Amino acid sequence: MNARSLSRPSAVEPGYVSESGAALVIALMFLSILGMLGTTAVILTGTDMQIGGNYKTSLKGFYAAQAGLEEARQRLCQNSAYPINDAHPTSTQWTGFIGTDTKSQKKGYSSTNAMHVKVASLQTDLDYTVKITHLVDAGGNILYWGDTDGNGVCEQTTVYGPDMRNIYVTISYGAFGSAEKTVVAAMTPLPPITVPAPLYVNASTTIQGTSTHIIGLNPSGCGTGPDLPAIASTLPSGTVTQNGNPEIKGVNGSDDIVYDSTPLDIQAMVDGLKHSPDYAYTVSSATHTGMNWGTPTPGATLQDASSCSDHNVVYYDTVGTDIKLTGGCSGCGILLVEGDLDIHGNFSWYGPILVTGSVVFTGGGNKNITGALLAGGSVDADVVGGNANIVYCGDAMDQGAFLSLALLNWKEAM
Predict the structure, then answer these.
(1) Which of 268, 239, 266 minimizes the C-alpha distance to 357?
(2) Which phi and psi angles does 182 have, rounded to 5°?
(3) What phi and psi, each to the nearest 5 degrees, are found at residue 354?
């Protein structure tokens, strides 16, 4: 027996694996691992698809619920073309519904309850049911939205009045497939803007020109609003001066100027109205010519109230500077200016104008504001002159009746 033969085992010894056997074992291990990875990938892919599908379904249910809120916001407007009528603003039992009979009944609707109002949705593509009630406090008293202290800023109150608006708790139940989502919001119509006089100033002011007319008497055709003073100033007596022979006439007669008036928070008033404008501009010391946001129908004279069927919210952010409107600008609704406003040449506006800074209302051309001009400037003087006419009109101040309800709070119910 030679040395080579002595080195080869006569049988497979324990623990011994040949090179070819080891390769086979390793290959089988890899195949097993790949098989497990493939199975895991299939499981994970299927799970991911299921999670993604559930998320999409849930999201569509959420969007349906949101759509229900928006329909309620539009239909609770006082002048909606498809209103939800609240004939019982002082009753805790009044409840409104949007949806089908069957689904509304599941949310508490009873066709035999005189305090219940139900309307069908204006669309059929989304599945939602909406329930609407009056907001009440912990004691069960109905809460209203309005300016209780005359500073121009609205707050909750339990005292009901003609300028107070209900706060509606609106619950929208959205559904898509197996998903159901609920969103809850408190919303309210906007009360008329607080107006102590057709011209409100917060700085030393000069009224000049024989063709200037500031009239606080509510004319016929302008609703049941009260007669007001012509001018209200937050400053002491003598800070409003006159040059020439302007007409300043109000509830107290000629030269009707009220001093030490309750300060209005013009900035807060603008902040509460600027979030959903029909027209918004960011400018810096700019001049806009011939702008048209509606065309008021003039009265018999420039001293008479105009009228208008358009209702726009126009917002200017001047970034701390000013905007000059000239060349025959006109509009209807609410004009909001953060900064100073210079009105020059022909100008016509129906509704309130709120300016956080000062106002120059002078120069040539015919000018008529039917509603009110509220200036919050406390540094620069407000100068009113030329052929300027500011005529109070109660109906012109109630622009909130034509706007979507203000959203006071919102949450998704879990």
Answers:
(1) 266
(2) -130, 130
(3) -115, 125
> Amino acid identity, residue 18?
S
Q: How many whole angstroms separate alpha carbon 149 and alpha carbon 267? A: 16
- Residues facing residue 213 across a β-bridge: 247, 389
Structure tokens at 407: 């959203």
Measured CA distances, 372 to 43, 141, 292 (Å): 69, 34, 19
Q: What is the per-residue pLDDT across 327-351, written as a single tens digit (0 to 9) for each?
A: 999 999 999 999 999 998 899 999 9
Strand partners, 288: 325
Using alpha carbons only, give the angle 312, 316, 322 rounded to the nearest 5 degrees. Answer: 140
Do residues 98 and 129 make contact, with C-beta atoms less than 8 angstroms apart? Answer: yes
How far, in Å, are 8, 11, 71, 238, 378 from residue 22 at the CA level?
A: 19, 18, 73, 108, 93
Q: Which two tokens stand for residue 412?
A: 């998704």
DSSP 121: -
Amino acid 111 reads: S
pTM to 2 decimal places: 0.81
Whether the CB-CB separation of 313 and 277 falls below 8 Å is answered with yes
Class of residue 162 by CB neighbours under 10 A (exposed 0-12, middle 13-18, buried 19+) = exposed
CB of 383 closer than 8 Å to CB of 341:
no
Domain ranges of the chain: 81-191, 199-397
Average pLDDT over residues 295-313: 94
Report whether 217 contacts 249 (CB < 8 A). yes
Q: List, as one string, the DSSP characters of 230-287.
A: SEEESSPTTSEEEES--EEEETTEET-EE-SPPPP-HHHHHHHHTTS-SEEEE-SSEE
Give 243 or 66, the one with higher predicted confidence: 66
Vertex 228 angle, CA 255 and 380, to 5°: 65
